[in-house]
């Protein structure tokens, strides 16, 4: 469905990225609506206006109204809403139900497929649901959540997951939930999952964190700061050297595999095709 003409002067910094491929997902607290325009003009592939953890209970009503007004002015964004088990969930959905420029909803603390489906039922038909898995119960239910008709992608709420399970933030401790979400997404034939945010690091530290994200089969990352988006986009995109390698493999083996002469070449071609697909999406030569 096409969006209505914008009534404001500022467009996003780049052409829209298909959310199935989006790398950087910037969370913006809805308690500070003056930040919405800056986020829209930033480098993030997707912005998420947060009326859940980013807003205290006493400020939910005002934040929800600010989001509805901004979207109603022709802007487009995702919205993170409160968990289906909270008293705020129905009010969040009521405020968004008629919004034509709502890109989709990130549902917090998902622990069943039925929660995602009940959310979708209260929104415009076809509104995509990004399911945020943040607990042991949610991780155990991940296959059911991923198979829900309403869910198009999973995201990892790593901070709340650590609080729920007692895991620390090390790559070793977090490898199991990341792998579980990646394998589950592949088995359900949905887009690869989005990793949780990395806090309190410089650009080099964020690049290292993104290397772990890629290694675990995840292709997106939540961002807490505007400056994070450019780093994440670069780190989660194919490099020029990777793209050159992929083109050379496809040239040698053929896009249809007609040049394959050994079993070891088939996975090479599959990887090359995946790289070139993402390179094309992000405009990498």
From TrEMBL:
Signal peptide feature range: none
The UniProt record lists the keyword Repeat: no
GO BP annotations listed: oxaloacetate metabolic process
Record's keyword terms, sorted: Lyase, Magnesium, Metal-binding
Keyword S-adenosyl-L-methionine in record: no
Residue ranges annotated for the HpcH/HpaI aldolase/citrate lyase domain, each copy included: 28-225
Compositional bias per record (Basic and acidic residues), positions renumbered to this chain: 1-21
Required cofactor(s): Mg(2+)
Entries under PANTHER family matching the protein: CITRATE LYASE SUBUNIT BETA, LYASE BETA SUBUNIT, PUTATIVE (AFU_ORTHOLOGUE AFUA_4G13030)-RELATED
Name of this chain's protein: Citryl-CoA lyase beta subunit
Gene source species: Rhodococcus rhodnii LMG 5362
Lineage: Bacteria, Bacillati, Actinomycetota, Actinomycetes, Mycobacteriales
């Amino acid at each position: 469905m096409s969006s209505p003409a914008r009534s404001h002067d500022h467009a996003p910094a780049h052409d829209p990225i298909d959310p199935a491929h989006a790398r950087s997902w910037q969370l913006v607290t809805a308690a500070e609506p003056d930040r919405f325009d800056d986020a829209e003009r930033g480098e993030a592939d997707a912005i998420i206006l947060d009326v859940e953890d980013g807003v205290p209970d006493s400020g939910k009503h005002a934040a929800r109204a600010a989001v509805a007004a901004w979207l109603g002015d022709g802007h487009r964004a995702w919205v993170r809403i409160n968990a289906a088990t909270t008293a705020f969930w129905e009010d969040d959905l009521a405020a968004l139900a008629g919004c034509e420029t709502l890109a989709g909803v990130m549902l917090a603390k998902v622990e069943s497929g039925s929660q995602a489906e009940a959310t979708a039922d209260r929104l415009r038909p076809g509104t995509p649901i990004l399911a945020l898995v943040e607990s042991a119960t949610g991780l155990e239910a991940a296959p059911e959540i991923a198979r829900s008709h309403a869910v198009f992608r999973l995201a990892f709420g790593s901070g709340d997951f650590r609080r729920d399970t007692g895991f620390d933030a090390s790559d070793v401790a977090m490898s199991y939930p990341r792998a579980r979400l990646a394998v589950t997404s592949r088995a359900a034939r949905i887009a690869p999952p989005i990793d949780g945010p990395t806090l309190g690091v410089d650009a080099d530290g964020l690049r290292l964190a993104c290397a772990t994200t890629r290694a675990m089969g995840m292709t997106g990352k939540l961002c807490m700061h505007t400056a994070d988006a450019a780093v994440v986009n670069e780190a989660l995109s194919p490099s020029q050297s990777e793209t050159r390698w992929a083109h050379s493999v496809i040239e040698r083996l053929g896009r249809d595999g007609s040049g394959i002469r050994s079993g070891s070449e088939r996975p090479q071609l599959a990887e090359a095709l995946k790289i070139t697909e993402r390179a094309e999406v992000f405009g990498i030569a």
